[in-house]
Amino acid sequence: MTALPRLLIISFSPIRSDPRVLKQVGLFSGKYHLITCGYGAAPDGVDEHFALSPDAIGWPSDRIGLLGRRYRRAYDQMSAVQQARKLLAGVSVDVILANDLNTLPLALELEAKYGVHSDLHEFAPKEKDDDLKWRLFVAPYMRWLCRTYLPRARSLTTVAPGIAAQYTRDFGVAAGVVTNAAPFAEGAPRPVGETIRLIHSAAGQRYRKLENLIEAMRSAPSGVELDMIVMPNEPDYVAELKQAAADVPAVKFRDPVPYAELVQTLSGYDVSLVFLPPTNFNMENALPNKFFEAVQARLGVIVGPSPSMVEIVNQYGFGTVTPDFTPTALAKTIQSLDRGQIMEWKRAADSAAKPLAAESQLGIWEAAIRALLPASDSAVS
To answer: Do the Cβ atoms of 241 and 208 come closer than 8 Å?
Structure first.
């Protein structure tokens, strides 16, 4: 029996809880000899796993390297890079799928037999361009990484059309798009009850301006409630949000749920608020997990005028778009909610669930990895 090609997936993230990387693992499990490297325990379905310790740092913290524009030094000083080099020394692979820009130089060093595919989850040079210090000291490093290493990847993908176009404009590289679509979930729209139930699930990060949702709910009509599932990324900020909501009875916080249970949890609601102010380039061009999870949960959505989301909402008709990103605009949209309209959105989400599911996207990764291999070494289809 011919041995399966050896595919290494690298991500400086806890893979078991990283939705995008888990999709890659599920896609390639059984078709390749699958090896992963990332934080935490091995994800299900892999043949080998190399675990980074929780204290290994996957972002640049070498101030001397950054200030002195000694960017290779700054990269080499990252403890996650140092640890991954040791773990993967001597590991022979045919192809590498490198997640995010911070793994790409390492992946290229490993000299996979047939090359590297780079999956870029954001537009790295503008990831935190709302922060002056980041723009001055980290953005030039990110641009250096892009100029130096993106042309050496055999192929690239990213998460949204606007981000792919920016990589092409700034660095002359072509990037395919694999959205953060959620896997297809069987289900049906649930009737809207006496209370219209809104939901927002998000990382608890200040630049997301989640306080706008709370402010908008201050004027919500009776019979409309918002639950917020907020991850404790920035605990002080999450505490501020809870304090701000203390005098808004229509807003409640609930504990995060495992990713595998999220769509089922969301299906008990009516409308998802996917309202992301354009505080930085990536937020402006966002096409986030929560948008697609709402579709699989058969919910309506309220989005701000984010171009990538607006295009899909208009195409499939499962929600509405606020005129701008102010709390006032969101409040007026919430005040105008109508149960009959919400049911139409839910039925439209049900019709969109299959065409917008992850399964419609995964073939792009599959084709990209297969294209790196000679025909005689192609994986099981």
So the answer is: no
Mean pLDDT over 97-123 rounds to 97
Distance CA(90)–CA(103), nearest Å, equals 18
pLDDT tens column, 348-380: 999 999 999 999 999 999 999 999 999 866 665
At 291, is the pLDDT very low, low, confident or very high (cuts 50, 70, 90)?
very high
Query: Could you tell me the two tokens for 377?
Result: 């070494």
Domains of the chain: 6-178+361-377 (3.40.50.11930), 196-352 (3.40.50.2000)
For residue 196, what pLDDT band results from cuts at 50, 70 and 90?
Answer: very high
CB 165, CB 284: distance < 8 Å: no
% residues pLDDT > 90 (the chain)? 93
> Residue 330: helix, strand or coil by DSSP?
helix
Q: How far from the centroid of its chain's Cα atoms is residue 290's Cα?
A: 9
Residue pair 32/6 in contact by the 8 Å Cβ criterion: yes
Bridge-partner residues for 96, per DSSP?
A: 8, 116
Rounded CA-CA distance 142/366 in Å is: 27
